[in-house]
Amino acid sequence: MLKNLRVRVIQAGSTNTPIEGAKVVVQDITEHWLKQPFDWRQMDATMWRPVSATTDASGWATFDDIIHEDGIVLVTHPKYGRVRAMWDGNEPQLELTMECAAVVDGLVTDEKGHVPPNLAVRLTWCPAPPFEHQDFE
Fold first, then answer.
1. Of 9, 27, 65, 118, which has the most beta carbons under 10 Å away?
2. Rg (Cα) of the chain, in Å, rounded?
């Protein structure tokens, strides 16, 4: 059975200020995957059968005829922190809130003041259930 979904994306701390230009992706992923380390690089991975739309000036992204029974909704925007949420397949619309992006800046060096080759920095945080943690590289 095909389903329709509308996702509204708004700015945190505002009075429903819409975010235009956010990329919204619905993937065919079960709730079990939300408890795993999540890799945002797989946002468009074909194995999850992603469908995507971009929010309009009113903050709405519209999906018609989704084949997924349920899934995960992923939202990105260059000026805001990424958001993900479960969609049970029965809700005709969701409203998701994005926080303004935070920037971590600095220079990582070894004990001699040199930047190590092949350096990777990983930040991990735990906001609140239902997500156990989210990683950023």
1. 9
2. 17
pLDDT in tens, 80-105: 988 988 898 899 999 999 998 877 77
Whether the Cβ atoms of residue 51 and residue 66 lie closer than 8 Å to each other: yes
Taking the C-alpha atoms of residue 17 and residue 98, their distance in angstroms, rounded to an integer, is 10
Calculate the CA dihedral of residues 43, 135, 61, 92 and round it to 10 degrees. Answer: 100
Sign of CA dihedral 126, 127, 133, 137: negative
| Prediction pTM value | 0.71
Rounded distance, CA 64 to CA 51, Å? 10
Angle at the Cα of 125 from the Cα atoms of 120 and 126, rounded to 5 degrees: 150
Residue 130 phi/psi, 5-degree rounding, is -90, 0
Q: Is 21 left (phi over 0), alpha (psi -120 to 50) or beta?
A: left
